[in-house]
Design a protein that fits this description.
Layout (H helix, E strand, L loop, with lengths): L18 H6 L4 H13 L1 H12 L8 E4 L8 E4 L2 E2 L1 H5 L4 H4 L3 E6 L6 E5 H17 L7 E5 L4 H13 L2 E4 L6 H11 L3 E5 L2 E3 L2 E3 L1 H9 L7 E5 L13 E3 H6 L10 E2 L3 E7 L7 E6 H15 L7 E4 L6 H13 L3 E5 L10 H8 L4 E4 L1 H9 L3 H4 L8 E5 L5 H11 L6 E4 L33 E4 L12 E5 L9 E2 L3 H8 L7 E9 L5 E6 L3 E4 L2 E4 H9 L4 E11 L3 E10 L5 H15 L6 E6 L13 H8 L16 H19 L1
Parallel strand pairs: 4-17, 6-7, 6-8, 7-14, 8-11, 11-12, 16-17, 16-18, 18-19, 19-20, 29-30
Antiparallel strand pairs: 1-2, 3-13, 4-5, 9-10, 14-15, 15-23, 21-22, 22-24, 24-25, 26-27, 28-29
Helix pairs in contact: 2-3, 3-11, 6-7, 8-9, 11-12, 14-16
The structure holds adenosine-5'-monophosphate-propyl ester.
């Protein structure tokens, strides 16, 4: 896996920091270098300064940090007391009562709502009282399955206010995925809506929730937001309308004093095996890290309008739609819809409508919009923009150039931010006033972050050689554990390379210290930036009786980045076309539409080692018609399987071309 990166990539263009940016940026190049050095040499001092600057503490910590990556038991700001909701809202009230906290833009564009800090305080306090009335207490897990409407933020902050742990499940997930997550977190209360709206389509949130809860006996109460107003079935003893519950409580609810190392939320993400991991973040370290990284990476200034297009069901939504902006007293835009509805100009129109200054999105959206041509962009002004961001997967240099030249009119730096659900916040990124930009590179480590590239033997590789990306030094945003599965937490991230955090990504660093992320080196597929575990998809396929074996791999996709390619051994007698449909339906039903299969290839057998492990390396190559250089196949239990696979693939590709 270690390989030399060719000269070609070394001749990339470099974009200097625009002079307009140098004038007002929080951090310039000199400051970055100095502060970075300080942050990694004196992490405790550095993080203590940030914690004092960015967060209000009810009482100070006794120790800045304890534990180590080696023992995977880091704790930050030990003994400190604070409340996340108080930090996001209450402490800004004196100066920001009438400042917009949230600007909400509806799917169809007919409706926008602005919620000031004062109003948000009132609504969150009220909803916190609703939760209390339903018996929710400190430490209880609350599941939130809502579309991108203000109530999702209200619900998350209300949980934080009373010390309950929110577990947001992406509104596009199926009933089964929702059920698995509710059960794993042991939630007793669920918050949902009648329907969600996306691209003019209605998503039956309540119906999915009903289906999920049928298998979750511990859920005793469901709070339902009336959003689209379409008819739904309410269960008399179990379901409560949000608006009715809100009118029955008052708006006084003090923020509970929490310990810095108490949990703030659980967020599920895919790993290599079938079961999603409940990533648990704690309050103190997470808040310090997202508050300060938000301000410096997005160069946020008071009065800026900031828009992150990520769904709140993902970590980007948690850290940089909600917590980062609100901790800084910022104005965050919440968009319910999709980039191509009602037209491919939608994003750019919203930027003009709300005078957005900072725009943060994913390469998959940029690729899809670029594909439709420049006119959709050029007919809008986008003059308000000053900074662009990218997250979730590598951004191809030509797509980067388009984003820079066409969307940003060559004026706006792009921050290509690398991080993960587990890391809490951004770890490798340019700083817009400091870093000369190289299209396609996530650039340099953020303060306090020490990335390294190592080979299979855990030895550091040379510059321009690819290897495994690990992190050598602890930072406050790192998750605390996998909820209910400490063993898996240790095994996944700390066992293979003791003393370092293993990211699961491969990358290389060039001679100028720029990091280039290549992609995952485990069994995680990134479809439109969403993490999907091969194991999850394979379990779904194997649940169809006509399937005897299945293996899925990632294949490149022009818009989605990667898509899912399935190899299936079917039982004799099963009809191919009908089965293909069944398989796709099953995957969508078990996981959700994001996991749709790109293609299914019927095969006689799968390549396996003598110990029975599927050799995905071979399957990945064959899926993209690379039949030479399949590597060492001598450890296969039955090497002739490879010849069959190649023949089947060639036959299948020929059939597609004919069609
Ligand atoms: O492979 C990396 C990719 O996304 C993974 C983390 O996915 P998730 O936990 O869903 O979080 C996504 C949003 C933070 C990483 O292991 N990734 C994330 N950002 C980038 C990236 N790959 C390349 N460039 C990035 N900027």
């Amino acid at each position: 896996m270690e390989r030399q990166i060719g000269e070609k990539q070394q001749k990339e263009k470099i974009y200097k920091v625009p002079s307009s940016f140098l004038k007002h940026a929080h951090i310039n190049l000199k400051q970055y270098k100095k502060l970075y050095r300080y942050s990694i040499k004196n992490p405790n001092k550095f993080w203590a300064q940030q914690a004092e600057k960015f967060i209000n503490w009810f009482s100070p910590w006794k120790k800045i940090s304890t534990g180590s990556l080696k023992k995977h038991n880091m704790r930050w700001f030990v003994g400190g007391k604070l409340n996340a909701c108080y930090n996001c809202i209450d402490r800004h009230l004196e100066t920001h009562r009438n400042v917009a906290a949230i600007i909400w833009e509806s799917d169809n564009g007919n409706e926008s709502r602005t919620i000031s800090y004062g109003e948000l305080h009132e609504k969150v306090s009220r909803f916190a009282n609703v939760l209390k009335k339903q018996g929710v207490k400190k430490g209880d897990r609350v599941c939130i399955y809502l579309p991108m409407i203000p109530e999702i933020i209200i619900a998350m902050l209300a949980c934080a206010r009373i010390g309950a742990i929110h577990s947001v499940v992406f509104g596009g997930f199926s009933a089964e995925s929702l059920c698995t997550r509710i059960l794993d977190a042991g939630c007793r209360l669920l918050i949902t809506a009648d329907f969600g709206a996306r691209g003019g389509q209605y998503i039956p949130s309540k119906k999915n929730a009903d289906k999920a809860i049928a298998k979750c006996p511990k859920v005793k109460k469901v709070i339902v937001v009336k959003h689209t107003g379409h008819p739904i079935t309410m269960h008399r003893k179990r379901d409560i309308w949000y608006h009715e519950a809100m009118s029955e409580v008052d708006a006084k609810c003090p923020a509970v004093k929490m310990d810095a190392n108490d949990p703030l939320f659980i967020l599920y993400t895919s790993g290599s095996t079938g079961k999603p991991k409940g990533i648990l973040h704690t309050i103190g370290g997470y808040l310090v890290f997202v508050a300060m990284s938000f301000k410096y990476i997005f160069d946020y200034h008071a009065g800026d309008t900031y828009w992150c297009t990520a769904d709140l069901g993902w970590i980007t939504g948690h850290s940089y739609l909600l917590y980062g902006p609100l901790l800084n007293g910022g104005t965050t835009l919440l968009f319910e819809g999709v980039p191509n509805y009602p037209s491919f100009s939608r994003y750019w129109e919203i930027i003009d409508k709300h005078q957005v200054n900072i725009f943060y999105t994913a390469p998959t959206a940029i690729r899809a919009l670029r594909h439709e041509g420049d006119d959709w962009v050029k007919k809008t002004s986008r003059k308000s923009l000053k900074l662009l961001g990218s997250v979730g997967e590598p951004i191809n240099p030509d797509v980067w150039e388009w984003y820079y030249n066409v969307v940003g009119n060559k004026r706006c730096p792009i921050v290509d931010t690398w991080w993960q659900t587990e890391t809490g916040g951004i770890l490798i990124t340019p700083l817009p006033g400091a870093t000369p930009l190289k299209p396609g590179s996530a650039a340099w480590p953020f303060f306090g972050i020490v990335p390294e590239i190592i080979n299979e033997k855990s030895k550091l590789v040379k510059d321009n050689q690819s290897g495994r990306l690990v992190l050598k030094q602890a930072w406050p945003g790192l998750m605390k554990t996998i909820y209910g599965d400490k063993k898996r937490f240790v095994k996944t991230y700390f066992k293979e390379v003791p003393g370092k955090y293993l990211t699961g990504d491969s990358a290389y660093r060039d001679k100028k210290g720029y990091f280039w992320i290549i992609g995952r080196n485990d069994d995680v597929i990134k479809v439109s930036g969403h993490r999907i575990g091969t194991g999850e998809v394979e379990s779904a396929l194997l649940s169809v009786p006509a399937v005897s074996e299945a293996a899925v791999v990632a294949v490149p996709h022009e818009i989605k980045g990667q898509s899912i390619f399935a190899y299936v051994v079917k039982k004799s007698g099963a009809k191919s076309d009908a089965l293909k449909k069944t398989l796709n339906n099953r995957v969508r039903q078990k996981i959700g539409p994001i996991a749709t299969l790109q293609d299914v290839q019927w095969v006689k057998a799968l390549p396996k080692t003598r110990s029975g492990k599927i050799m995905r390396r071979i399957l990945r190559k064959i899926a993209v018609n690379e039949f030479d250089d399949l590597g060492d196949t001598s450890t296969l239990a039955n090497p002739s399987v490879v010849d069959d696979l190649i023949a089947e693939r060639k036959k299948y590709s020929a059939k597609i071309i004919k069609r």
